[in-house]
Design a protein that fits this description.
By secondary structure, the chain is α+β, with helices and mostly antiparallel strands. The protein folds into two domains: 204 residues, DD-peptidase/beta-lactamase superfamily (Beta-lactamase); 130 residues, no CATH class. The chain is built from twelve helices and 14 strands. It has an eight-stranded antiparallel beta sheet with strand order 3-2-1-14-13-12-11-10, sandwiched between helices. The chain has a two-stranded antiparallel sheet with strand order 4-7. Helix 2 packs parallel to helix 6 and helix 2 crosses helix 7. The two termini are 24 Å apart.
Length: 386
């Protein structure tokens, strides 16, 4: 990775040594097998470091081109794909998804009775905006909060590719099964992390007439030069695939830190990278503001699961979280930052106020096991001197 001089972009090389020391401590303390981090500011990659091993048992060192499971960091990529379709006039945000997927026309909603799946009719339609903000009322099969998740498991409603089902594993088949499940809550009434973005991926297929992986490759990965990002790892790249230190059946995209950095750089530069425009600048601005009703934060609409910090002061845009009040979050950051992470402790954030983005890669489940992302923020921002 080509790096500029930290001082030329308002970072202190001396203070960045604290970042390097923090990373080394994660390995020597046996918190992590290996990790990598990059900081980009004012148009330059100003810092990159990787340390530890990608596979402790095999003794393979972690490298710049190590391929990671990014899990839910796939979701902002799906959101960008949807907004490409939005710019082409395929939908409006408040369109009911039943307009494109008729099986979602008449939905039922769990009535809240503990341990019993009693239902009532949905009071409104699920919209595309609900999908993109996780307010549709869906859930995940691995959660245990309500009887709805038990219904998911019983009826094999899982977008996890590692869970083979006799009902079909493509997006169309799984989405159709999902339409038979009751919702956890009324559409638009609360925030709940869920399979919403998987359904959005199915809509991208309907709007574009392409499979989601082909759309990603042609409209996002190729133009951005994300050569190592895909839903599966090619045979000639398996030796670069990092081990994950918790049993999991997998799911989502895989890619390198450099590839995800190019995706972040495109967003920071409002939709364009190296002369290739993915989205209009105003579209990126629109995605990265709070779309929760009445400008509420996530804490007011439902606390996210597995979060290592609270969600006060954090709203949700179109496919990623948005800081609406930095002071209320009680972490060092800027209002207007947008971000997300993956289940294996990966993370990114984009800070337009500081013209900066950070990408962090490791492979530890669950992501809330250590306060890595909070510590990473301190290590990053203490190095800013201008």
């Amino acid at each position: 990775m080509q790096l500029g001089t930290p001082e030329s972009v308002g970072l202190s090389a001396q203070r960045l040594e604290k970042m390097t020391a923090w990373m080394e401590r994660q390995v020597t303390s046996n918190r992590l097998a290996g990790l990598s981090a990059m900081i980009h500011r004012r148009g330059q990659n100003a810092y990159f470091n990787c340390t530890g091993q990608m596979d402790r048992e095999a003794g393979k060192p972690l490298a710049e081109d190590t391929i990671f499971r990014i899990y839910s960091m796939s979701k902002p990529i799906t959101a960008v794909a949807a907004m490409i379709c939005y710019e082409e006039g395929h939908f409006q945000l408040d369109d009911p998804i039943a307009k494109f997927l008729p099986e979602f026309t008449e939905m039922q909603v769990w009535d809240g009775t503990p341990d019993v799946l009693n239902t009532v009719p949905a009071e409104g339609y699920i919209t595309v905006r609900h999908l993109m903000t996780h307010t549709a009322g869906f859930s995940y099969e691995f959660m245990e909060a309500t009887p709805v998740e038990a219904f998911y498991r019983e009826h094999k409603i899982s977008f996890n590719p590692g869970r083979q089902t006799e009902g079909g594993n493509d997006l169309a088949a799984i989405t159709s099964r999902l339409a038979t499940a009751p919702l956890v809550r009324q559409p638009g009434s609360g925030w709940g992390y869920s399979v919403s973005i998987d359904v959005l991926g199915r809509l991208v297929e309907v709007w574009s007439g392409q499979t989601l992986d082909r759309f990603f490759e042609e409209r996002i990965f190729q133009p951005l030069g994300m050569t190592d990002t895909a839903f599966s790892v090619a045979a000639d790249k398996v030796d670069r695939f990092a081990a994950c230190y918790e049993p999991t059946s997998g799911g989502g995209l895989t890619g390198t830190i450099g590839d995800y950095g190019r995706f972040c750089q495109m967003l920071l530069q409002k939709g364009e990278l190296d002369g290739n425009r993915i989205l209009g600048s105003k579209t990126v601005e629109f995605m990265s503001v709070n779309h929760l009703p009445e400008n509420k934060d996530m804490a007011a609409m439902g606390q996210p699961v597995w979060s290592e910090s609270s969600s006060e002061g954090i709203g949700y845009g179109l496919g990623m979280a948005v800081v609406i009040d930095a002071a209320t979050t009680q972490l060092i950051r800027s209002t207007g930052e947008y971000f997300w992470g993956g289940a294996a402790s990966t993370a990114f954030w984009i800070d337009p106020a500081e013209d900066l983005f950070v990408v962090f890669m490791t492979q530890l489940l669950p992501s809330s096991f250590y306060p890595l992302r909070s510590e990473l923020r301190v290590a990053t921002y203490q190095a800013l001197v201008d």
